[in-house]
Amino acid sequence: MFSNLTFVMNHLLIAHQHNFIPVVDMLNFPTIYNEKNKIDGTLNAWEYYFEPVSRYSLEEVYKSKNVLITSNKFIKEFDHKIYDIKKFNKIKKLIKVKKNILNNILLYKKKIFKNQNILGIHYRGTSYKTSANHPMPPTKLQMHNLIHKKLKKNKFDKIFISTEDEDMYQFLKFNFKNQIIGLDSFRSKKDDAFKVYFRSKHRYLLGKEIIVESILLSFCNQFMFVQTNVSNFVRFINPEIKIEIIDNGMNSKNEYIAKYLWTVKNNLPSFLGGFKNNL
To answer: 248 near 136, Cβ under 8 Å?
Structure first.
C-alpha cells in the first residue's frame, strides 16, 4: 500500500515543480488492491482510499491533449522518506484519506485508546524474513525483551500492535495478556495475503486495514518499528511522534541467500553469528 503511495507522492512532487495537473490512474494501471467490482462507485483503486488529487477525472484525461503518462519504475532519484517535511510538505495537502475511512479511525481511537499512554508497534514479519536487502525483523525473544524493557521504563497502559504476522501477534497476546490491543485485521502465518481471496472485498480490505492501523499508530505516545513504508507513513502523518527504530541488521542483497539467512540466524547462538537476544 505505502509503496504505491510513496510512488505517487514522488510523482506529485514532480507535478508540483513543473505546474502539471496530476491525476492518479489505478484503474488502467491496476495494483494488487484492485477489485473486480466497484468500491464506493469506482474501479480506480487510488480512490478506494484517497480523494482525487485534482478536479479532473480519468475520462477527461484520456480525451485530452498534452498528457504525460509516467513509467512504473521507482527511479533512484525518488525518496522513500516521505516524512521529510522540507521535501514533501508542499504536496501533503493532496493526500486526503476518504471520509468514511477517517470516521472508522476516529471510532476506533475513541473505543480502544481512551486517553491512555499507548506504545505503538508495527511488526513486519512473513515476507520480510526472506526479502533481499530489507531490514530483518526481530525474533520472538527479541520482541519480548524489547517490550518488557519499554514497559519497565515508561509504564505504558497499553500496546497497540499492527502486524500481518499472526504467529507474532498471538505470541505477544499470550505474553502480555490484556496490555495488547489491536484491530481484527487479516493476519497470516505465511506470506499468502494476496494469493488466496479469503473474504468478500479482501484486497480492498487489506489496503483499508493497514491505512487505518497506520493512522492509529500515529496517535500513539511512542512508536517502535522496523523500518518500512508503513513506518514512513506514520511519521508523515505525525512528524513529531517519539520513535524507536528496531535495528536487527539488513538481509543479504543476494535473493537466494536472503531466503534462508533470517531462519539460520534465528537458530544460531549469537556467538556463532545468530541474533542477539537484546537489541
So the answer is: yes
What is the spatial order of strands in the sheet that 242-245 belongs to? 180-181, 158-163, 118-123, 222-225, 242-245
Return d(Cα 258, Cα 255) in angstroms, integer: 5
Position 237, amino acid: I
Q: Which residues pair with 39 in a beta bridge?
A: 42
Largest CA distance in the chain: 65
Query: Cell numbers of 195, please?
Result: 494469493
SS3 call for 165: strand
The C-alpha cell that represents 55 in the structure block = 478536479
Taking the CA atoms of the chain, what radius of gyration do you get in angstroms? 20
C-alpha cell at 162: 499492527
**pLDDT digits 0-9 by tens, 184-218:** 999 988 777 777 787 999 999 999 999 999 999 99
Q: How many helices (H) and strands (E) does the chain have?
A: 10, 5
Query: Is the Cα dihedral 201, 212, 95, 126 positive or negative?
Result: negative
Beta bridge mates, 158: 118
Q: Name the DSSP letter for residue 50.
A: B
**Residue reference for cell 472508522:** 104
C-alpha cell belonging to residue 143:
520482541
105 half-sphere exposure, CB direction, 13 A CA radius:
19
Q: Are 30 and 58 in contact (CB under 8 A)?
A: no
Grid cell of 101 as nine digits: 475511512
> What gap in Å lies between CA 216 and CA 233, rounded to an integer?
11
DSSP-assigned states of every residue in 130-145: T-TTSBPPPPHHHHHH
The reply to whether the predicted model has a pTM over 0.90 is yes
Q: For the segment 104-119, what is each residue's pLDDT rounded down to a tens digit?
A: 999 999 988 888 999 9
